[in-house]
Every structure is written in C-alpha cells, then in structure tokens.
C-alpha cells in the first residue's frame, strides 16, 4: 500500500518531467498544441460515450451466449480513457491508448435465455357469467 501511495505522489512529477523532455524535443508551442488537442479528444470521447455502450450491446448480440470480460467493460474503459486524455501529460496519454486497445479476455458464459411461451397453449376450464339484474327504471333514453 505504501508503494502505491509513493507512486501516486510521484506521478505528477513524472508527468511534468515527460512534458519538459517533450518540450525540449519539439518546442513549447508544439507541446501546448499537443495538450490542447488531447484535451479536446478527451472531451469528445466523454460527450460521445454512448458509442461504447452501443458497441457492448452489439457485441452481446453478435457473440451469443459467451462474451469477453474486456468487451463487457468497454464503456468503463472508454470513459476512463476519455478522462485520461483530458489530464495533461504523456504518461496519461499512453495509459489511455492502452485502455483503447481491443484486447481479448476470458470468456464469460451468459445465462441461457428462457424458451418463449407458445401462443397456442390451451387452458381448459369451465366458467359461468354472473350478471346483476338490470333495473328497468334506470335507462338512458
């Protein structure tokens, strides 16, 4: 747990060091443009995250009773990648790209669907109709 906390505290410094190194290679304007474009990409992904849910539903329909765990978690991965694209930095961009890779995971067997009820089933029984006697004084003329 301590190692995770130390890595979490060192993450911003690693991002800054990566951005400074990148700025040394392509210049400050290029890095600012890179950060702006990646943030716009992240915003676009978050605004259109319904696509991830639709892709998961399409996968369920195409693959039948078995589906990959990674494709089931696709909407969550897509949303997290969008957030990581908004965070400025090279390391977060690499993590977002890794989340968007189409990985195959273990298969999950879905429960079998119940058989549809046939409409021509016949239920036999007896009934009789009980009507209240009509009052002859109560008419609508």
From TrEMBL:
GO cellular component: membrane
Cited InterPro entries: FxsA (IPR007313)
UniProt keyword Nucleotidyltransferase present: no
A Pfam family assignment: FxsA
Spans through the membrane: 26-46, 53-74, 80-103
PANTHER family membership: UPF0716 PROTEIN FXSA
Protein name as it appears in the record: Membrane protein FxsA
Organism field: Paludibacterium paludis
Phylogenetic lineage: Bacteria, Pseudomonadati, Pseudomonadota, Betaproteobacteria, Neisseriales
Gene name linked to the record: fxsA
